[in-house]
């Protein structure tokens, strides 16, 4: 049925449901013929609800029918479906997981629907915890908070300092202490309003608080829209490296509103372009197997995120690309590793004092991987040149200002190493990428030197 269909769920307390079922049976004169409710009918109903809960949770709109006549329920359902159609709120994509379903919306203005969509999805929720950073807060917090208040959520706000340093155990513990000492309950919702830093931090808090709260990702940076908000990876950094502590945890809702890009600083926009370029290079190896993103990128020398609807299309293509990979391999046991193109060296470059933005480090990491691939005859020098030009056109660095030794040291402690072996995602001649764990140390040193490392 998905995507495009609206699934309606009707529910009530077990006592009410038993009363209705037995009342109906009495009316029909089949009072005894309810084997599923034999024994203690309310307890049986509760356990049926538990067993079937996963399916019921897939509903887009859930109506609690307590004290409502069938006519009133029908009216409410009609209204809810109509409101939704008017708002154009039909998910673009869904990722199904055993526990929850993740619905992704990509649309200008979808941010204003956060209250409606969260309320429909979690009708019994009382409280909502918004996590954001102090840059994003000044532009978008008031508006987001009122959309949630209008949907009857009791709000609590956490504004953490902007910057990668906040993706820390200290901030995680600040959030968790704040939530657990202020009466957090299992039905609460966490809204991550911000870039990848906020998404990763708030996502992890949602994953571990009371063993899992509902989560909404509202990505505000290009990087978070095209990459980090999709796929359910959350995490924080430790002294041992980037993303060393984390969890796979799917958000129930991902609301991608390109209008957020209107306040994103230019350097951050460019940083996000690195993940767009990454997706363009890996796309032939994804289940979508197309070169559409590369074409889109080549057609556009530069993008104006506000005026240019092409930017919305690019976001859409990226989300589809990432979604196709994540759906095929949610836990990163195989295919999903190709999303790490540029990240083997990129993370190590980023972790060297966090002088480069994530996207800038990934751009350098992709270029290093291309040099390695060329040295292994996987691609020609012309492909390395094409990648370098694309990176340059996006306003990203092509020269590494840093020490090769430090990058190599950081790579040694990368959590993606398996039994001490480094895994590389390398571009290949026929388009797309290959996964290799037989890259010689000297090839890495040469590649880092080729991009300017000293
Ligand atoms: N979970 C994943 O799958 C995944 C994937 C890729 C990257 N990441 C992580 O994402 C992080 C990088 O994400 P990022 O580049 O978005 O960094 P970020 O969240 O630090 O945002 C970058 C800067 O832009 C500001 N900003 C964001 N949106 C804004 C807006 N609309 N208006 C004004 N300012 C805005 C932020 O305040 C910050 O100063 C890294 O921690 C990286 O490890 C995670």
Strand content: 15-25%
Shape: elongated
- The radius of gyration is 24 Å
Unreliable parts: none
Got a strand count? 13
Sheet with the most strands?
A: 7 strands, mixed
Could you state the order of secondary-structure elements as H and E? EHHEHEEHEHEHEHEHEEEHHHHHHHEEH
Bound small molecules, which ones?
nicotinamide-adenine-dinucleotide
Task: Count helical runs.
Answer: 16
Distance between the termini: 56 Å
**In percent, how helical is the residue content?**
40-55%
**Order of strands across the biggest sheet?**
3-4-11-8-7-5-6
Structural class: alpha/beta
Q: What number is the mean pLDDT? A: 89
Which helices and strands, and how do they pair?
Layout: E1 8-11, H1 14-28, H2 41-56, E2 61-64, H3 70-87, E3 93-96, E4 101-106, H4 114-121, E5 127-133, H5 134-150, E6 154-160, H6 169-180, E7 189-194, H7 196-208, E8 214-219, H8 222-228, E9 233-238, E10 241-248, E11 253-256, H9 266-282, H10 292-299, H11 309-328, H12 343-350, H13 358-375, H14 381-393, H15 404-412, E12 424-427, E13 433-436, H16 441-450
Parallel strand pairs: 1-2, 4-11, 5-6, 5-7, 7-8, 8-11
Antiparallel strand pairs: 3-4, 9-10, 12-13
This protein binds nicotinamide-adenine-dinucleotide.
């Amino acid at each position: 049925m998905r995507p495009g269909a609206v699934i309606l769920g009707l529910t009530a307390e077990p006592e009410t449901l038993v009363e209705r079922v037995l009342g109906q049976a009495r009316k029909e004169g089949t009072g005894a013929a309810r084997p599923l409710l034999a024994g203690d009918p309310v307890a049986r109903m509760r356990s049926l609800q538990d067993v079937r809960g996963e399916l019921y949770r897939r509903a887009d709109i859930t109506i609690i029918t307590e004290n409502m006549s069938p006519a009133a329920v029908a009216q409410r359902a009609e209204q809810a479906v109509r409101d939704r159609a008017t708002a154009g709120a039909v998910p673009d994509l869904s990722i199904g997981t055993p526990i929850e379903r993740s619905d992704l919306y990509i649309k200008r203005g979808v941010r204003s629907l956060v209250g409606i969509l969260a309320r429909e999805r979690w009708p019994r929720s009382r409280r909502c915890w918004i996590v954001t950073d102090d840059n994003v807060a000044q532009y978008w917090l008031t508006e987001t908070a009122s959309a949630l208040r209008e949907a009857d959520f009791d709000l609590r706000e956490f504004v953490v300092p902007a910057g990668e340093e906040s993706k820390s155990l200290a901030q995680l513990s600040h959030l968790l202490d704040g939530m657990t000492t202020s009466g957090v309950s299992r039905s609460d919702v966490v809204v991550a309003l911000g870039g990848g830093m906020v998404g990763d931090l708030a996502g992890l808090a949602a994953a571990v608080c009371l063993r899992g709260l509902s989560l909404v990702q509202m990505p505000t940076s290009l990087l978070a829209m095209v990459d980090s908000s999709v796929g359910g990876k959350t995490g924080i950094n430790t002294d041992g490296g980037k993303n060393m502590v984390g969890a796979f945890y799917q958000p129930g809702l991902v609301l991608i509103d390109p209008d957020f890009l209107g306040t994103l600083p230019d350097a951050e926009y460019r940083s996000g372009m690195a993940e767009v370029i990454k997706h363009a290079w890996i796309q032939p190896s994804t289940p979508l197997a197309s070169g559409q993103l590369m074409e889109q990128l080549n057609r556009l020398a530069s993008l104006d995120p506000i005026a240019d609807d092409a930017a919305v299309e690019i976001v859409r293509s990226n989300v589809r690309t990432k979604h196709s990979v994540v759906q095929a391999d949610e836990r990163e046991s195989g295919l999903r590793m190709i999303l790490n193109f540029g990240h083997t060296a990129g993370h190590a470059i980023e972790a060297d004092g966090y002088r480069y933005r994530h996207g800038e480090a990934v751009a350098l990491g992709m270029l290093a991987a291309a040099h390695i691939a060329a040295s292994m005859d996987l691609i020609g020098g012309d492909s390395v040149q094409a990648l370098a030009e694309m990176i340059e056109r996006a306003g990203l660095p092509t020269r590494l200002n840093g020490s090769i030794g430090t990058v190599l040291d950081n790579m040694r402690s990368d959590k993606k190493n398996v039994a001490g072996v480094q895994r590389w995602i390398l571009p290949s001649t026929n388009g797309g990428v290959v996964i290799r764990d037989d890259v010689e140390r000297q090839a890495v040193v040469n590649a880092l030197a080729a991009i300017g490392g000293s």
